Amino acid sequence: MSTEKKNLLEVRNLTVHYETDEGIVEAVNNVSFDIAPGEILGVVGETGAGKTTIALSIMGLLPKPPAHVISGSIKLDGEEFLPSLPEPEGPFDFAKKGPWKAEQKKLELRFREIRGKKVSMMFQDPMTALNPVLYVGDQIAEVIKIHENISAAEAEKRAGDMLEVVGIPRERYKEYPHQFSGGMKQRVVIAIALACHPDLIIADEPTTALDVTIQAQVLQLLRNLQKEYGTAIMLITHDFGVVAEICDRCMVIYAGEKVESGNLEHIFDKNMHPYTRGMFESLPNLEEDTDRLKPIKGLMPNPMDLPSYCSFAERCDVCEEICKSRNPELIEVEPGHEVACILVTEKLAAQNNAKEVK
Ligand SMILES: Nc1ncnc2c1ncn2[C@@H]1O[C@H](COP(=O)(O)OP(=O)(O)OP(=O)(O)O)[C@@H](O)[C@H]1O
Ligand SMILES: [Mg+2]
Fold first, then answer.
1. Full set of structural domains in the chain with CATH
2. What digits encode the pLDDT tens for the residues 266-277?
3. Where is pLDDT greater, at 358 or 184?
4. Under a CB-based contact definition with an 8 Å cutoff, are residues 159 and 138 in contact?
């Protein structure tokens, strides 16, 4: 038997496009990553980088149309969740029969079984994730009833327990979302995501809409739940502070590509990609005396018109001619630390050559 640690989630070469009237949005390009059981992976990137698209792909919730999975593999506990057949070309036509559609249907049924039970998602906006006309308690009980063969009374009791787990008295079971504050609504969303003790929770910017104190409480809660239940978490955020607070590892996404990933030491202290570096330089730092913050100039390229070379080149402070000659490949610069930058690749190659000469 292999002694290697088994991954809970394995995403390989995921490429997702949206086909719109204006053109093809290349939202996610050749992204690969793993999440181990119980691990918290931070996914960082600016708006439009493709973070939510990655999350929806894993949940089987991409809006089709306009989304097309162009290639890739998504394995949860070793089970494949992307169709083995390529999507039919041309305009999307679900009425079209065919082996691709049959496989898609089978996968959709399987997704329904695992969603909520094996993998849950907390959506970006807690204010709209809840149903305004249902009691908060019943919204939790509903998930439990769908997945577990238990009576309504038992599901209600479990939902009350879950409310208490997230710090809300069970007496508030029969209240509506509008009677709850933003932080409490977010706690209900967490309770729903956790109700069936999934192995993986995908939390899409779970604290963005909250003020700083409530944000700290929600993060603490997520961390405690991860410790108690061993739940793995994919935490999407644009805030490195959140990553530092609770993540084990972090991956930086830029224009739909993974540009750097590693543990917190790699990302915070030994980062190498100019985009990661630029993001840190644009943040206030209490320890260093900086006169001025240095924002990254320019904007992310239009995902409908990505360059055939490094997509960060136009904004990069250290860009050289070679950076506009090809797309950078992702290389492992040290165990567990990956970077996609031509200059880094070249520098390492030169160092290795120098070593060989000696
Ligand atoms: N349904 C859709 N139709 C067309 N384009 C879409 C759709 N959903 C997302 N996109 C585009 O895909 C790209 C990636 O979007 P995505 O929502 O995955 O980014 P994100 O990293 O989650 O951004 P944010 O931080 O703003 O949530 C963007 O250019 C976005 O405009
Ligand atoms: Mg998003």
1. 9-254 (3.40.50.300)
2. 999 999 999 999
3. 184
4. yes
